[in-house]
């Protein structure tokens, strides 16, 4: 009889990340810091400042506000906004402990998310559902859990996993609440195990477990040919829903070749239409989830940065949006979610900039840090400071001071 799935996963998590994983984690840390910097003055940031005096906890409200947080395609979730607050929430932890715990947190969150499948994604927000597993592991790892303790923490965290997608139909802060819930629930589950609580290690596959309740055809726990799943996570160059990124990338390629001309015909996979077929966006949230607006942004010569999705941009781009048509291509849908693809005016891309197959380099993430720091009202010197700390520093206290200065 095989061991419960969470027991198997916890054994995998007990491995020691190598230097390559820690260096990859540093890139994702910088990427998350950029997202936090850019969202400092948002409504979600104001809420976070009221909820908690702790900078890491305030930051839980900020990592996904701009829709520029990292993403794992097969698991259909965003690990960074959940894992980093949990990994940074123990002030006494060293930088190496935090990096190792983040690698393990990414592994757990993505592994579980990969097993949930598209039926789950149709109704549930996987960043929240699987996020509790990742947060439990990240915090459990940073406080020194053995494999059995990680399995117990995941079992207890997963027993209250959830987060329904209905919030995407309204301009609300529920998505940020989901992140906060995932971080605090996973962290609290680990804390309870630290003080002696046990948990159901067959929570995933059990007769009344997560799979039975939340998915029709659970798959295997995700694994990476690269050793750790953090290497398979994509970075997001543009300030829009990830489902809009393939169309943005196609439009940019056409623009660079001098061939982006109206009318604009977008063909893509079904989920991109479910989430992002919004021809007449009214709010910034709508615009970030609008294929029509995303293509209009590029056609207008813009860079798909945060300012390109504001109410001013929505008004300015109405005529261009009206020239964008969107439809599903079943062949592109068949390759999803392994590939998030699109075709614009006949040009098709299977992979998008920021994906492992078309990676962005360190310089691009530093540039993203500068762009979002400026958007969030920070000086360029603060962007340089963040890059130096995230990419090179071994002093965890420097990182804590950075967040304290940004989120007073």
Specify the biggest β-sheet. Answer: 4 strands, mixed
Instruction: Could you tell me the CATH topology label of the largest domain.
Output: 2-methylcitrate dehydratase PrpD
Helical content class = 40-55%
Low-pLDDT parts are: none
Strand percentage lies at under 5%
Helix and strand string, N-terminal first? Answer: HHHHHHHHHHHHEHHHHHEHEEHHH
Global structural class: mainly alpha
Please name the fourth-level CATH homologous superfamily of the largest domain: 2-methylcitrate dehydratase PrpD
User: Strands of the largest sheet, in order across it?
Assistant: 2-1-3-4
What's the shape?
globular
Number of helices: 21
CATH C-level name of the largest domain: Mainly Alpha
- Mean of pLDDT: 97
- Strand segment count: 4
Please indicate the count of domains: 2
Instruction: Report the end-to-end length measured between terminal Cα atoms.
Output: 53 Å
Radius of gyration: 20 Å
CATH architecture descriptor text of the largest domain: Orthogonal Bundle
Topology:
Blueprint lengths: L4 H9 L5 H20 L4 H9 L3 H5 L20 H8 L7 H29 L2 H4 L1 H12 L4 H12 L15 H21 L15 H5 L30 H12 L7 E5 L1 H7 L7 H5 L2 H9 L11 H6 L1 H4 L2 E5 L1 H5 L7 E3 L2 E3 L12 H14 L4 H13 L3 H11 L2
Parallel strand pairs: 1-2
Antiparallel strand pairs: 1-3, 3-4
Can you offer a commentary on this structure?
- By secondary structure, the protein is mainly alpha-helical.
- The protein has two domains: 5-232, 2-methylcitrate dehydratase PrpD; 242-349, 2-methylcitrate dehydratase PrpD (60s Ribosomal Protein L30, Chain: A, 2-Layer Sandwich).
- It has helices spanning 5-13, 19-38, 43-51, 55-59, 80-87, 95-123, 126-129, 131-142, 147-158, 174-194, 210-214, 245-256, 270-276, 284-288, 291-299, 311-316, 318-321, 330-334, 362-375, 380-392, 396-406, and strands at 264-268, 324-328, 342-344, 347-349.
- Helix 2 (19-38) packs parallel to helix 19.
- It is globular and about 65 Å long.
- The termini are far apart.
- The model has no long low-confidence stretch (mean pLDDT 97).
């Amino acid at each position: 009889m095989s061991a419960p799935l969470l027991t198997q996963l916890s054994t995998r998590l007990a491995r020691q990340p190598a230097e390559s994983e820690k260096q990859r984690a540093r890139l994702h840390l910088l990427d998350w810091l950029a997202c936090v910097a850019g969202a400092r003055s948002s409504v979600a940031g104001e809420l976070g400042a009221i909820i908690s005096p702790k900078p890491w906890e305030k930051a839980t409200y900020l990592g996904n506000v701009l829709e520029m947080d990292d993403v794992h395609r097969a698991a259909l979730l965003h690990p960074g906004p959940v894992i980093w607050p949990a990994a940074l929430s123990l002030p006494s932890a060293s930088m190496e402990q935090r990096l190792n715990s983040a690698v393990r947190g990414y592994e757990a969150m993505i592994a579980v998310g990969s097993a949930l499948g598209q039926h789950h994604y149709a109704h549930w927000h996987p960043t929240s559902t699987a996020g509790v597993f990742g947060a439990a592991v990240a915090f459990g790892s940073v406080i020194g859990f053995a494999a059995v303790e990680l399995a117990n923490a995941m079992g207890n965290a997963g027993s209250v996993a959830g987060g329904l997608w209905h919030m995407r139909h309204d301009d609300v802060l529920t998505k940020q609440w989901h992140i906060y819930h995932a971080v605090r629930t996973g962290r609290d589950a680990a804390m309870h195990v630290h003080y002696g609580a046990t948990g159901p290690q067959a929570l995933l596959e059990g007769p009344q477990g997560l799979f039975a309740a939340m998915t029709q055809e659970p798959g295997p726990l995700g694994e990476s040919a690269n050793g750790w799943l953090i290497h398979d996570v994509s970075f997001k160059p543009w300030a829009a829903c990830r489902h809009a990124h393939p169309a943005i990338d196609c439009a940019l390629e056409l623009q660079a070749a001098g061939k982006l001309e109206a009318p604009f015909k977008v063909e893509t996979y079904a989920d991109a239409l479910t989430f992002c077929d919004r021809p007449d966006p009214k709010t910034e949230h709508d615009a970030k989830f609008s294929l029509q607006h995303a293509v209009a942004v590029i056609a207008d010569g813009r860079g798909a940065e945060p300012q390109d999705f504001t109410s001013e941009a929505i008004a300015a781009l109405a005529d261009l949006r009206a020239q964008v048509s969107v439809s599903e291509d079943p062949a592109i849908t068949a390759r999803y979610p392994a590939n998030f693809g699109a075709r614009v005016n006949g040009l098709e891309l299977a992979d998008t900039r920021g994906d492992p197959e078309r990676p962005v380099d360190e310089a691009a993430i530093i540039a993203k840090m500068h762009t979002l720091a400026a958007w969030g009202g920070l000086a360029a010197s603060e962007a340089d400071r963040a890059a130096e700390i995230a990419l090179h520093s071994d002093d965890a206290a420097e990182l804590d001071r950075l967040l304290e200065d940004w989120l007073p």
